[in-house]
């Protein structure tokens, strides 16, 4: 191992890690919003839109993120739509993550006992109030383990962004290997960078899952979308 080489190139990995975290954060937030909207459409059985959501989920879940990125980056310019590498990465991550989040929300909603809705209605709540104040909070709480798994999954998926020339961690590692042939050093720094990003998130997710379980939620067996 050439430790001097590794030390001198750490700043490159730091910048790449910032880019990876930025894309991940925006993509995850958008995916949660997409997932919430899609799950509402599905559980409320809104005509036509429900069918469109089902088509979106099937396409998103059954095509690799890499293929979706190629479509955005290389396919859309054929019809006059040119997106930057960063935009493609965000859209691609939100597109794929949204379908997993939608299934997480849907699973959580279905795990809420019908008597909860009936009790809310008997107390004088409207259907909208029951949904947003009783059903949805419990659904989110019971789906925390799936949300956490999806978030970690989405961050790990960012390793394919280098395919559309985004200067992320994998891009830097491949660049250094190509220029200096320092494969071991570049890959060691790559693995270390992902561990530094993912390990704290994993620990935080574990802590949140325990807190939710102690509060009386999360004892069901939600189905992971991954």
Automatic annotation (TrEMBL):
Q: Where are the transmembrane segments?
A: 20-41, 130-153, 160-181, 187-208
Q: Which residues form the signal peptide?
A: none
SUPFAM superfamilies reported in the protein's UniProt record: MetI-like (SSF161098)
Please tell me where this protein is predominantly located: membrane
For the ABC transmembrane type-1 domain, which residue ranges apply? 17-209
The record ties this protein, via Pfam families, to: BPD_transp_1 (PF00528)
Keyword check for Transmembrane, yes or no. Answer: yes
Provide this UniProt record's keywords sorted from A to Z: Amino-acid transport, Cell membrane, Membrane, Transmembrane, Transmembrane helix, Transport
Question: One GO CC term of this entry?
Answer: ATP-binding cassette (ABC) transporter complex
Q: Does the keyword Transport apply?
A: yes
Location comes to: Cell membrane
One function term, GO molecular function aspect = transmembrane transporter activity
* GO terms classed as biological process: amino acid transport
| UniProt membrane topology term | Multi-pass membrane protein
Q: Which family does it belong to?
A: Belongs to the binding-protein-dependent transport system permease family. HisMQ subfamily.
Spell out the protein name for this chain.
Polar amino acid ABC transporter, inner membrane subunit
Origin organism is: Lachnoclostridium phytofermentans (strain ATCC 700394 / DSM 18823 / ISDg)
């Amino acid at each position: 191992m050439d430790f001097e080489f590794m030390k001198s190139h750490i700043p490159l990995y730091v910048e790449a890690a910032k880019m990876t975290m930025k894309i991940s954060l925006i993509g995850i937030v958008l995916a949660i919003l997409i997932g919430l909207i899609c799950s509402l459409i599905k559980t409320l059985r809104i005509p036509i839109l429900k069918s469109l959501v089902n088509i979106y989920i099937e396409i998103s879940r059954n095509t690799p993120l890499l293929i979706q990125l190629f479509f955005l980056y290389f396919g859309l310019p054929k019809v006059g739509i040119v997106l930057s590498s960063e935009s493609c990465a965000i859209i691609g991550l939100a597109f794929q993550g949204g379908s997993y989040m939608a299934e997480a929300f849907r699973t959580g909603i279905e795990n809420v006992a019908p008597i909860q809705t009936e009790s809310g209605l008997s107390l004088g709540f409207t259907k909208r109030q029951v949904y947003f104040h009783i059903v949805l909070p419990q659904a989110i709480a019971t789906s925390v383990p799936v949300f956490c798994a999806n978030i970690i999954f989405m961050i790990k998926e960012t390793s394919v962004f280098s395919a559309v020339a985004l200067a992320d961690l994998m891009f830097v590692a491949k660049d250094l290997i190509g220029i200096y042939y320092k494969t071991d050093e570049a890959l060691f720094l790559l693995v270390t960078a992902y561990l530094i990003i993912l390990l704290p998130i994993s620990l935080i997710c574990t802590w949140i899952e325990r807190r939710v379980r102690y509060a009386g939620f999360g004892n069901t067996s939600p189905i992971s979308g991954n």
